[in-house]
Sequence to fold (446 residues):
Amino acid sequence: AITQAGWTRGAEDMSASSAQAKPSIRPLRGVVKDYAWGIRGNDSRVARYALEAGAIQDVDPAAPYAELWLGTHPKGPSTLEDGEPLEGVVGGALPFLFKILSAGKALSIQAHPDKQNAERLHAADPDHYADENHKPELAIALTPFEAMCGFRRLEEIAHLLRKHPEFAACVSSEAKLKVFMARSEEAKKAALQDFFASFMHCPAEVSAAQLRELIQRLQQEQSKAVHPHPHEELPWERKCARAVLRLHQQFPGDPGAMAPLFLNYLLIAPGESFFMAANEPHAYVAGEIIECMACSDNVVRAGLTPKFKDVENLVNLLTYTMGGPNIDAGAVVAEDPRMVRYTPPVPEFEVVICTVSPGEDLTLPDLSVPAVMMVIEGTGSGDAHVTGDADLVLRPGRSFYLPPDCPPMTLTVNQQQRGCLRVALAHENLHVQLPTSIAPSSGKED
Fold:
């Protein structure tokens, strides 16, 4: 159970963990993932951080660097500086997985299953669903970040079906009629599910032909010669059209390029965040974020990817909630306003961002649970308060494991530095009753 005081487990587990945990803060080495959608070379924050932390020896300017993992997940287990597995030092698996994500192009249209669905999928297809855990996740923007998250309100989808006949041709007449006629919330959810199932099961030759026609028309409309007067088309509709064109450039011929016509298209600023609950559709488009999630790598995909697509399972597990996620900027920690916590409504994780200005120092919270820390920007030093140990050098990308009940580290920035030091601290959720982020609702898109 998670409480305000910390992490409590069974007596045997706790004693085993205490015996193995080391009292001092230790440098940590993450694992890089080179998925095709990653930003290439040194333009990727993942590449720069991994190089600084010793996770890679050099940076290939042509290679994509997509994700940097800190945690104990078997598909990317972190190690200490001497090569010792983090899981052995912790005394078991961490319940969360911390990542830096650098997206140069769109990720797949996907959702992460809840625990019940994860257990079912893992039992039926362990090759594609490697674990039994759910995967709610929190995204905190490091750069301006674009994403498609959650279904649009049904009224918006109905409007776009009328506006784009090519899009409408990919949906059955029965499903479209339900979209246009639904009035109650229950009817709207049922209509949304029928619409999405119909679109996803559209014959490939039909969707490919309609996509070609849609792209040709949108390209003509977006040109200067024939573009509608700015006041004749709403900004969100123009954003939809341009997003479709952009996705088609990245994934030619993939009907998933029409996803902006039924998913909310968001742009968040650095420091802003959103929470994606299990069973909610999303596709990250571009930018760099901190991502923290329950310790799982289960993904049910349905478009914008050459990887395995599982349309039937995706259609059946979604909640069909309408409206985008709530955008939040965290909550200032009362004890020190230089610390901002991002707390989701799940027990596995939360993230605290700490900012130290030149000439200042800041002591991290005293934690009773295991934590990982990564330097996000700036330089400074960290005093781990261990007799005989030199101060830790803090540079962007350097990561550390903080054992439970270790002396809290003090971060210091020299007066001569020209910018702030910023670090991210991730651990089990100690404020689950005080979330800053909530699951997507059926409210109006921002």
User: Anything to note?
Assistant: The chain has a mean pLDDT of 90.
